[in-house]
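Hello Y.,

Per our agreement to keep a running log of every chain we model this quarter, I'm adding this entry. I've kept the format consistent with earlier entries: sequence first, then predicted structure.
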Amino acid sequence: MRTIAKIIASAITLFTTNMDANAQISIGGRFGVSANNVVAPSLNNTLSFNPTYNYSAGVVAEIALGNWLAVQPELNYTTKGFGMKLGNNFKIFDIDLPLGVKAETKFHYLEMPLLLKAKFGNELIHGYVAAGPTLGYALAGQLVGSTTVLIDVKLYDAPINLNQTGFNRFEMGGAIGAGVGVETGKGQLFLDARYTRGLTQSYEIPVIGTKVMNQGYGLSIGYLHRL
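Predicted structure for the entry above:
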């Protein structure tokens, strides 16, 4: 946690050092939903993975580099993972799953994107595209199992031991997105669509013996207030 805080402070210092003292800075928050899954370089058809649907929230800063260019550091709490429908008895992350159960893994991350944002439009409403690296740290994990009898019935909700061999809590990745901002006088409302992809292998799926990387598609709404 302290390492991530130091990286955030260093990143903000890097982009604010030697900038004009009158450079415009805005701060605010965002809330969103996302569809998350995993990918693997050599994934076979042993298991079928399904997306999980999660929420995210965070704080955002925008540091103007001119009228139409800005740097946007964020600190977000987000959830990633994948789902499976099992046809046989199966063990994942040392938890036994019975026949016919649907299982969802959920990993809760503290994540810091550092995005370069290019804007276009006018002073009232503008569009933008943004891209940049992300750094994440997995805080906790859980495995949720359910079965369907007319409706989904939860069978259990078990914590996952993230210290087990093969799980990498730190994740390096990237994000690319686009959105629209609307001026409100004191700041701006924004709507943001984003694709994120892990570039480091986070954990190994049992049986198929391959490590996977996270990916997700998200939609968020937020507000930035000019200081």
